[in-house]
Amino acid sequence: MIQNDLFLRAHRGDSIERYPVWLMRQAGRILPEYRAVRSKLSGFKELVETPAFATEVTVQPVDLLDVDAAIIFSDILVVPEAMGLPYQMIEQKGPWFENTIRSQEQFALLDDHIDVQDRLWYVFEALKQTKTALNGRVPLIGFAGAPWTILCYMVEGKGSKTFSESRKLLYTQPALAHRLLQRITDVTIDYLKGQLAAGADALQLFDSWAGILGHDQYVEFGLHYIEQICQALPNTLLTVFSKGAVASLPEIGELSCTTIGLDWNMSVPLARSLVLENKTLQGNLDPCVLYGSTDLIENETKKMLKSFKSQRHIVNLGHGVYPDIDPEKVKVFINTVKNYEISNFDNA
Amino acid sequence: MIQNDLFLRAHRGDSIERYPVWLMRQAGRILPEYRAVRSKLSGFKELVETPAFATEVTVQPVDLLDVDAAIIFSDILVVPEAMGLPYQMIEQKGPWFENTIRSQEQFALLDDHIDVQDRLWYVFEALKQTKTALNGRVPLIGFAGAPWTILCYMVEGKGSKTFSESRKLLYTQPALAHRLLQRITDVTIDYLKGQLAAGADALQLFDSWAGILGHDQYVEFGLHYIEQICQALPNTLLTVFSKGAVASLPEIGELSCTTIGLDWNMSVPLARSLVLENKTLQGNLDPCVLYGSTDLIENETKKMLKSFKSQRHIVNLGHGVYPDIDPEKVKVFINTVKNYEISNFDNA
């Protein structure tokens, strides 16, 4: 049993005493305790691939920031690597893939019918160890990249401002794009089922590059595969975070998931008008607010909380916490949420 | 007199026989003739600062692609440089400023009351020479960066994925941000008036980083200053292109300008429902369509054209043309627009 199950109740739409709060990228560079672990290792990937270390940094924000949920420390790019496309994480630069998938021939070089238990054992083991370490204090979130975002990295081979190679593929080789997206989707379903089996209480799909596609393309190449994942995981607490896809919010609201993540550019009232009350909204304070004074953080956080017109909310930032944010400022944000008295909504 | 004034008529909402078409970044790297000029020079800035060369590459797409408007070859960063913040354009990397504005002290180091005629003489001279070279064939567009986008570069000092330093300033030093935005606005008004005096037939404001601000901040720190510029330039054909600001389209539609630029993520019918028929819409084909086959380009272009429900449209891409696009594909796009028979709209 989970002692603090506020996050799970808000996900399900059950009654809550206050809004639950956690932060995307809460396990990471903002914490000196994280940097201490990281400095002992050869690199980012050693941390991701060593369950004991991944567990340690996953639990840190629960101990240090008192968040209402833990999220497993990992990387969305473990999936393409498991599919046969290894990557490196280059300091100050980001991910880099030696090989990319831009042709049928390159696609054929990917490993077919992979055993995710074998290839991604370290994530499942980290989840198990984290569950033990958390000892039921708060729920544990597992995650994966959404298929479109994973395709972006597999085609581009690195980060990009426009991901024009990936978007080019949709026009020049749509059948190949669909084949690759389907392969990613199948692996991701296996991977997420494995995470649930290893103890994840809830899941989140990150579609970081949703916003670079126009509406129709995002429906065809993005949401179609996300919905497959949702349907393959019935009775699961699943959050879909399609960053920048404000134009597709009506369709996102129709997905078979429980919660919709909002970025800081999405207006909460507008999102609620497009996403019915049968789903929870998660977000969406501008992460730059945490650069501000204590007063500013309190005021902006309260302004956001007041814009909520029901209990179906999980509080988060609208993007991962930026690396140079002072953890004390994060605590101001968290405490403001915890001290906020939730209204007696007529519709709650 | 302008021989082909289709662009001007569509801007004003006058009757047109067919939709006018041009491309953002049409004068540039896609053309071998541009690269030939560029290769003779020390760098990008020599091209920007030498009127004869800027004129030559501005006219190239009129000669080679037969577009319905020319846009002066220049850079939005000439404005911060004129204000006392010089930049370099580093190959493969983009702009870089040695100094940035993040404090009142740094702001105080900017040059006050600058004479734009003196500092930006080379842009005005390029406009004059281009007018002569065009000899009235098509209209000439002048442009500037919108104040928020210029602030982003002055604060960040280079490109960024998040522009978190700039967004931080809005929370931590809003008064300084407003002071800087006002200064940029005042210089930009002088600069654009100078461009009109030098022969520009129409103007465009590029707000490339509009989309990284939430709605309320974009209204306060973005649109407020754009509206000042619009009001300072009455009876001017002015296009505002706020890339990514789909959530602010209702307010953008209220600006005192004649035309609204749409990026490729913005749905034309949705945009039209938010921007009344008293304004022209410009855009918005996904630039990645031009990677496709002739058939694909024709079909996607026609699909866009069919979505227009009035004559108040100027055709363009939804972003600058990408540097590795084949100019022959650009011609397919342009010819498809030119051969498209405009409907007899009831409301036209």
Overview of this protein structure:
The structure is a homodimer of 348-residue chains. Chain A is of the alpha/beta class. Chain A has one domain: TIM Barrel. In chain A, 47% of the residues lie in helices and 12% in strands. Chain A contains 16 helices and 9 strands. In chain A, helix 15 crosses helix 16. The longest helix of chain A has 24 residues, at 174-197. Chain A is globular and about 60 Å long. The first copy, chain A, starts with 5 loop residues before the first helix and ends in a 9-residue tail after the last helix. Chains A and B meet through helix 10 of A and helix 10 of B.
What's the layout of helices and strands?
The structure is a homodimer of 348-residue chains.
Chain A: H1 6-12, H2 32-39, H3 44-49, H4 51-65, E1 70-71, H5 78-82, E2 87-90, E3 94-97, H6 104-108, H7 116-119, H8 121-134, E4 140-145, H9 147-156, H10 164-172, H11 174-197, E5 202-207, H12 215-232, E6 238-242, H13 249-252, E7 259-261, H14 268-274, E8 280-285, H15 294-307, E9 313-317, H16 327-339
Parallel strand pairs in A: 1-4, 4-5, 5-6, 6-7, 7-8, 8-9
Antiparallel strand pairs in A: 2-3
Helix pairs in contact in A: 4-8, 9-10, 9-11, 10-11, 11-12, 15-16
